[in-house]
Amino acid sequence: MINRRTLIAALAAAPALGTLGVAVGSTPASAADLYPSNTALYANPTLVEGVDYGRRYRRHLVDDQSPQDRTALIRTTVIAPHGGGIEGGTSELCLAVAGYHPADLAPTPAAGPVCDFWMFEGLRSSNNSALHVTSTHCDDTVARAMCAGSLNVLSLHGCTTAQAGVEAGARAVLVGGLNPTFRQYLMEEFAAAGIRAVTASGEEEIAGVSPENICNRSMLGMGAQLEMTTELRAAMFAPGKNTRTDRAANTLPLFWSFTAAVRTAIQRLEATQPVL
After folding, report:
1. For 78-90, how does the pLDDT look when each residue is reduced to its tens digit (9 = 90+)?
2. Based on the number of CB atoms within 10 Å of its own CB, is 6 exposed (0-12), middle (13-18) or buried (19 or more)?
3. Which helix (H) or strand (E) holds 175?
């Protein structure tokens, strides 16, 4: 019988393979970022946490002191590194995919299951893009600790159609990251939900194939990344309500169809994984 510590060590040592046709060691295209890391951003005395930016996370308590019963570990962490006003809609999706209604954090669905979550959010009325830190440079200590302690990480992002390589106006999601099984399940569930999904390729940050990318800093050394076009995210919220303050309470059916597809993919992935 393999003990839990041996199993975790073996999983953590699993190689991270670049499977999307992009060099794993390629240099991230982050020259446009004002800050080279989260640490550098937090150290800027002109920025005020709670005014310019915010951080939210939930790491669920696991308390197992009974020799007869076993409390299951949370296997998956959902993150939004560019939430709030940076890449609109990703904070709300992060909460919903993790199992919480974005308006009031009520468990949704009430019976669960839930995932751990972390997000960095731009809180300004404008110029939130200046707070963008590329995913390969995300060094927030809580984010890294949560990802390193999870079998799976799903990172949610926003992009333009030009960045996605699709036609103007397309409502599409690009599926990337180093976990091929996770990517497969996401693609299948999006197809079943009637949501256009494309396998991410090309530019490293869009494809999410660097081991340094926060989505791949899991216990397994691989995760998944979703890049959603502006048009797809806009269609998830009521017209005129696609703002940082209004989105959470004004979700449309597409928002919940997308959320359900992702949650089903996560549940399928977790069902294939060993008991911890």
Report:
1. 999 999 999 999 9
2. exposed
3. strand 173-176
User: What is the domain extent for residue 183?
Assistant: 28-60+73-271
- Shortest CA distance to 12 belongs to which of 180, 222, 184? 222
Q: What is the pTM of this model?
A: 0.87
DSSP codes, 145-196 = HHHHT-SEEEEEEEE-HHHHTS-TT---EEEESS-HHHHHHHHHHHHHHT--
Start-to-end CA distance of the chain, whole Å, equals 13
Q: What is the CATH number of the domain that holds 79?
A: 3.40.630.100
Single-letter residue type at 55:
R
pLDDT digits (tens, 9 = 90+) for 124-146: 999 999 999 999 999 999 999 99
| Weakest mean pLDDT among 11-20, 55-64, 120-129, 163-172 | 11-20
What's the domain count of the chain? 1
* Residues 6 or more apart whose Cβ sits within 8 Å of residue 253: none
158: in domain: yes
Identify the burial level of 247 via C-beta atoms within 10 angstroms of its C-beta, where 0-12 means exposed, 13-18 middle and 19 or more buried: buried
DSSP state of 106: -
Q: What is the pLDDT of residues 229-268, one digit of tens each?
A: 999 999 999 999 999 999 999 999 999 999 999 999 999 9
Inside any domain, residue 149: yes
100 within domain boundaries? yes
The string of DSSP codes covering 18-47 is: --SSS-TTPPP--TT-S-SSHHHHHH-TT-
Domain assignment present for 112: yes
